[in-house]
Amino acid sequence: MALRLTKLSNSLAAAAIVLGGLAAGAGGYRQTQDGMLERVALGAARSAVAFDRSDLAGLTATRADVASPVYAAVHARLQRLLEADPLVHSVCLIRERPGRPGLVLLAAAGRDTGRDDPQPGDVYDALALSPALRRLRATGQPAADGPAGGDALAWVRGYALVGGAAPAGSGDRAILLLGFDPAGWRRQQWLAAGLGASAVWLLLGLPFAAAVAWRRQREQREVIRNLSEAMEQAHSALMIVDLDHRIEYANAGLCRQSGYSRRELIGRPWREFQQPDTGPDLMADLVTTVRAGRPWRGEWVNRRRDGTVYPVRGVVSPVFHRHGRLACMVAVFDDITEQKRTEGILRDAKERAEAGDRAKGLFLATMSHEVRTPLNGVVGFASLLLETPLTPEQREYAETIRSSSEALIQLTGDILDYARVESGRLKLEPQLCDPRDCVEDAFDLLAAKAAEKRIELLHWIDDAVPGVIFADGGRLRQVLVNLVNNGIKFTGAGEVEVRVRVVADAAEAAAISGPAEMPPAGRSVVLAFAVRDTGIGIAPEHHAKLFKPFSQVDDSTTRRYGGSGLGLAITRNIVDLMGGRIALASEPGRGATFTVFVRVPVPSADGPQAPRSSLAGVRLAVAAASPGLRAELARLGARGGATVIETDPVGLTRGPVWDLAVVDLNEKLAADFVTRPPVAASLPPARTIALVPISLSTPHRAALRGHFRLLVNKPAHHDALLALLAAPIGPGVPVVEPQPGPFALSVLIVEDNAVNQRLAQKVVGNLGCRSATAPNGRVALEELRRFGHDVVLMDLHMPEMDGVTATEEIRRGSAGEARRDIWIIALTADSREEQKERVRVAGANDYLTKPVRLVELTAALQRFVDERKKR
User: Fold this and answer.
1) Rounded to 5 degrees, what angle do the CA atoms 741, 485, 594 make?
2) pLDDT tens-digit readout, 368-397
3) DSSP 652
4) What is the topology classification, in CATH, of domain 427-600?
């Protein structure tokens, strides 16, 4: 601020001095002009004394005067006046003409003569405009003016009355006119102006310039002193090096770092104070960079006077002369010994933390395996126990064992997923998948839980949703499972529905970016997965708490409904990893709707959906007690082209005529149908399909097969249900239930845990498969060499030879060339992504996580059967 004020005051003072000089010059110019005009007027008056009115009485102011002796005498006298003053250019006698405009010439003498010289009788109308002549005619006093511009008035002229002053109107008056060349006149005026201005500028400018120079010199001394003190007091080492790499200046910081005095440093080569093993490439790069006019930054090692070395980091900058030639180099650097030590400590700490993280991951994986392995036996045998005749009390105990074990499995999975999220090791594995399968697979996993609470699971996927997308189907299914499971948990009665649509609003879709690295695809769309329940609802002030780990709305919710509070937190992190967004709309008592928005690429080859099974012309009766399920089935029938008749199970036999019927049976209705005759005319079995809870008992299922063509577990897969409805009806069509198996496969179970061996044998036996067991990978190779099997269930953690190694050996042909391509399903309690990757690389065809549920194993075997049909 002070510097700005100083500059402003200097500018104002300089401007004042310049303006003062200009004013003085203008004053000198005007004063000189006035003095010279005064002298001209006096000269004219003195010259006019040489003539008398009587001398001019004989002049007639005509051309005839030239021959008169009076004119000759007057002209001779004018010539002498001209010669008396060398500055005079011309002398004229003019006469006023009272009553007539203009002035008339009596006689004239000039230095330039020629044919155009003025002659007696010439009229000078322009002179009447002269201000001096006007004053003369008014006052009778001599006057002068000029130069005034224009050819006629471009001279300096003096006027005086001949014969003294005479009042105006007293008769003809003669006037003497002296003319002067304005060139000399101008020179004198400008000289006077220059002298006046120069005097002011010298008198005021020199002291001002001296003051400014003194102030600037003082400021420069102050800057130099501050710079010198800053360089001396700087903590960093600073030195100036000449072009021969000799030290020209060293500050106190360099002396402190090196242990040398300034005198010992000045004049010595810089390289003498560097560690001898400092790489030549480093110095060559430094010199090349600086000589190219760019600063060099880097690290090197210096040597102290006592021989110890220390690392430094700094910058070496070039300094140029005004004409652009390199003058020297300035090096500024710091001792980074402590920083290097800190970096080493941090590096060691980072390595220890990473090792700890790896150990934690291994610990979690090991504990997961150790916990899930016995839980696999508990859940599996509890499920098998529930299939046997039990007393109500025994069934309650067995169901408690199974539900508690499944809750522990869910908690274990959530903890592992949360640990992966926290460590940043949760990765997406995008691949081609069908969003319909993701929704329906999630329902399959939760169907039993929903059936226990008599909750309807509904879903609808819009026609605009692509049939194939590029996404991590497993993680998308996990998100849906968490949200649907959350809806089932907090819904006492009613329904949980999933709707999938394409976001058509451009502004809403633009806010969803997608994953950081979008895989290649033809285009991308934003899908909205809305999960709605009719549960207890959530107050708006509690919405944010739901997505925090280990957090629920309140303690009473935790006690009543259970849970760790990790499911929604993991869901939120998965959605964030997908580059999506999750929204919640809920009010207490009105349920909740969680909506997940994700951007997914769609392969360019994905075109319109394949034509669904046609029900054109078919009258389809939909009988369901639940309004939501009835509406869903009606929309599904309309999608297939059928004419839909909505009713309830009771009114099905009394309603309009129909061709096919879909009947929703709960346990009460199922028991009622069991007591009816096998065939009723109003409800022909060949034309009816029943939707039954997955928890419906085996005896009830067997009794119902006589009443319905097919029994389909709820929630039904839409495309599969349409295909069943469109299947031909006629003689020879078997009345079968689309249930798992029998697969009639030979399965080799490679498992070291005896309990899990027996469980796996029992489960695959219920699916119609033959089985053999092997306690480890080595025995499995021998078994495969001796006997042929269709499928291998390969546990991964086993003694002698683990499952990954055994899989690799099978693919190498160690079990025989005929077994190289055998279908291998990996079984493990370790659900880490890196473990899945190891299994995939080893050559496994499928992957199941313990404890293996019946529906998951069934789906895995079905995938093998479908793949074998393609070969």
Assistant:
1) 130
2) 666 766 776 777 777 777 777 777 777 767
3) G
4) Heat Shock Protein 90 (3.30.565)
